[in-house]
Every structure is written in structure tokens, then in C-alpha cells.
Amino acid sequence: MTKKGKESGKEKGRLRGRKTKHSQSESSQELPTIVEEDASSLDNQILSFLGDLKQQITRREETLMSMLSANASQTQTLAAIIAQQGKTIEGLARKVSELESAHKWDMKTENISLGKTEKVTILGKVKDFVKDTCVDVSDTSTDLNVGIGGNSCKRKLEFVNFSSHDIDILYMIRQRHAGSPFAFLSHNRGEMTSEETPTCLDLSFRPPPGMRFSGTELAVAAYIFSNHGEERECLYDDPHCDGSRFRFLSLRPGCELYDDVLNMVVGMCTGKKKDKTKWWLPTTFSHMILNPDQFSQDTMDYITDRYMGKADDLMMIYIPMHTKNHWYLMIVDIWDKTLVYLDSFHSLENEETQFRISQIRDVAKYLEKMIRDRSFWESKDAFPPLVSTFEPSLPPTGQQEYGSMDCGVWVCEWIMNSHLWLDYRLEDVNDSSRMAIAVQLVTSRENPLCDVISDRAVNYWDAEMLRNHQRERNSDTWSGGIVLEDDPPQPGSSTI
User: Fold this and answer.
1) Which ranges carry the Ubiquitin-like protease family profile domain (predicted)?
2) pLDDT confidence of 144, banded at 50, 70, 90?
3) Bigger pLDDT: 257 or 28?
């Protein structure tokens, strides 16, 4: 090989070496770019996957809420149908009762066994219809504050030891005058209206027109608001509040509601903790949180034990709030993660509204700290909700009239009936609401005294009917059991 050929070969080798090194350098520069592009593509895929997952979850939640809304609507429709059927059944029961009563009164009175004389639990003095003497019943054996185990009237809803003449008069009263279904053997009545309340009953709050009552409810309403009732008499037995007649009188129109009534409503709703999805807390819960100087750990432990339960299935917490002589309701909605603020008198001043919302947030912070305790959870994997992070919600509601004292009544209605409505604007409050709350509390099966008070109410009703009949018989206007309308009745001389 010539010298020139060798040099040409060496030159070619150097060029190949340079090309190899240059290609290696280019590949080393392209590698990071490829890795970055792959990482960016992976991030995009993850974000796309999470976006799709969020959309699926959102669609499922919307579907679930739609189903729940449809179920709630169907439930309301069924409730209306059941109520209508109930009225039909009550009407049939009333007809059957009238037929049975007519059959009984066709029997000879001497074949009716009336038993022995018993004392009648009423207040004040009553004319004895048989002896025509004044009987003082203040020393009756029945204590006003008797509990379940106490002595109540041994025989329910009847008077005893009447002559056949008296029985005929009682039958006449029932037949000719409205509002006397409880007299003697005629107490089986399916439904009554407020218009059937006898005018002879001296009441501080009469049932408003249009109300319907079943069983002994109308007699209970008259007994609660009787002007002759003892204010200290216990009508609702609850260890966390005062259930005396004095507290119930705050349900009269125009009166400011006592917190004891709200606590009775809370206790009635709580019952025996059958509903694990809701907590109803008494007024003392928020009061102690917002007034640390009045905080009592023993009281808080009592509230925890009685009104709270396991929080695994918890969805709603109802907390009555009181600020500057005004009641409003806080609802912790765990499902929607909101703090619902229900107020029947929204302040026109934004500062006042913001102050009430800040009070709600303070209670939410304490509640969140409280339910972190593992004793509230059955599941070890449960994660306590961050209640303090929930956003306030101010849904539109009905509003009370300016100058009225109905704010506490609104809170009672929201607590008792919120499970019926999807829209809080459907709720309304009037005098009938006040009467209904009183009767529902006393006749509730959660009230240990419900049967005792019902007995007393019927005895009071019957005694007033007989006393009024005695007055009419002794008056100049009495004529064969009919009150003459020639002269207008004088104040204090009521007619049935």
C-alpha cells in the first residue's frame, strides 16, 4: 500500500470516530427530553383519570340525591293518603260508636251496674250532682305531681254512682250539646273539632278554629289551659326541664316561649334513641358553649349520655340557639357538609346576622372537638367529620310577624317536622301550632304521665259539664234541657 493510501485510511478512521462521538453526544442530550415528555404524559393521564373519576362520583351523587328526593316526595304523598284513610276510619269508628252507644242507652237503666263511688280528680269545688252539696276535692287521694307509679283514677273516663234520672240527663247532654263526648259511657269518639269545645269551660287559650283532635286530645287541651288548673302541676315528666303547667302556659298566643318547652320537644324527639341518623340537643348545650363561665362538665356528660349516640350513621344534628332574646336553629348537615342557619326573623342588619353565624361556628368548633373522641364511633376506621370547615347555609324560610313572640315556636316546628319537608318555606306558625305543640307533648308516649294526665283531663271535662248543667237547671233559663235564647247569657254564666 502506498503512503498516500495509508494517510487516506487514517483520515477516514478519524472521521468515523468523530461521527460516533457526535452521535453519542446527541443521544445523551435527547434522553432527558424523552424522560420529561414521558413524565408529563403520565401526569396528564393521571389528571385525566382523576377528572373522570370525579365526574362519575358527581353523577352518582346527583343520581342518589334525585332518588332521595323522589322517595321523599313519595313519602309525603303516602302520608297524605294515610291521613285521608285515617279520617275515613275515624268517621266509621264514630258511626259505630254512636250505634253502640244508642244500643246501650236503649237498655233498661236498672240493668246497668255502676260500681262504687270514687273520688274525681279535678281542681276547685264541684257540685255533687247526686247530693246537691258542695264537695271540696282539694283533699283527693291523687297527687298533682304523681308519676307513673302513683295513684290515678282507678276507672278510666267515667263517672259512677248516678241515679237513673242523672243518667238520663247525661244522655241528654251528650245528644243535644256539642263538645260532650266524654260524659259517662260516651267517651269513644274518633275525631272532634275545636268548634266542639264547650263554652262553659273557663280556658285561658281555647283551641283555634279548624283544629281536629282525636281520642282525648281535646279534653287534654282544655285541661292544660284551664284557668282553674294548678300551675305547679307536672304535665310532662322530664328530668332535664320543668314540665309544669306554668311552663306550658308560655304556649299561649303572644307569650314568649320558655326554654323548658324546647327541651321537652327535644326530649320527645330523642325518645329512646331509635333514630341513629339524628341528634336533637337541648338548649343547655349551646348555652354552655357560648357562656364558658356557666359551663358544667356534669351537665355536658348528662347531655352526651342521653341525647347523643354513636356517630357512624349520623347525618343531622339539631341545636336550638338563643341570642339577645331571640331563638333560632342550627342544623349540622353532615351529608351536605353545611351549617344550616334557620331564623324566623332575619335581621336587616348584616352585623347581627354575621354575629349569629359566628355563634354557630363557635358551637361547630366545640362539636368537632367533642366527636373526635373514639367513644362516639363503633368503626375503628371511621373518620370524624370536620364540622368546623362546613360552610354556613341560609335557606329561605317563613318569617314571623313583626313584634310577635313566635321565634321559639318556629324552632319547635322545625325540630318536630323537618323530616317532612324538603323546603323550609313550607312550614308555617300560628296559634294552632302553639296548641298542637302543647297537646302533642302531653299525649306523647315519651311522656311518662300521658295516661295519668289524660284521665285527669277527662274527669275535669265531665265534672265541668255536670256543674254547668247544674247551674242551668237551677237558673230561670232552664227548660227541659234547652237553654232559652230570649236573654243573652251574662258574663260568667256560660252555656254549652
Assistant:
1) 225-418
2) very low
3) 257
pTM above 0.85, yes or no: no
Cell numbers for 364, please give them. Answer: 361547630
Q: Are 472 and 199 in contact (CB under 8 A)?
A: no
Q: With contact defined as beta carbons under 8 Å apart, do 194 and 207 qualify? A: yes
CA–CA dist 96, 106 (Å, integer): 15
DSSP labels, 362-388: HHHHHHHHHTTSGGG-SSTT-----GG
pLDDT at 294 over 90: yes
pLDDT computed for residue 68 by the predictor: 75
Query: Which tens digits make up the pLDDT trace of 326-353?
Result: 999 999 999 999 999 999 988 767 888 9
Locate the domains of the chain by residue range.
109-227+450-483, 272-423
What lies within 8 Å, CB to CB, of 434 at 6+ separation is 205, 251, 252, 253, 409
Eight-state DSSP code of residue 43: H
Domain 272-423 sits in CATH 3.30.310.130: yes
- Amino acid at residue number 253: P
Q: Among 261, 210, 161, 248, which residue's Cα sits nearest to residue 457?
A: 248
Q: What is the pLDDT of residues 103-114, one digit of tens each?
A: 554 443 334 333
What distances in angstroms separate CA 88 from CA 85, 211, 213, one per listed residue? 5, 17, 14
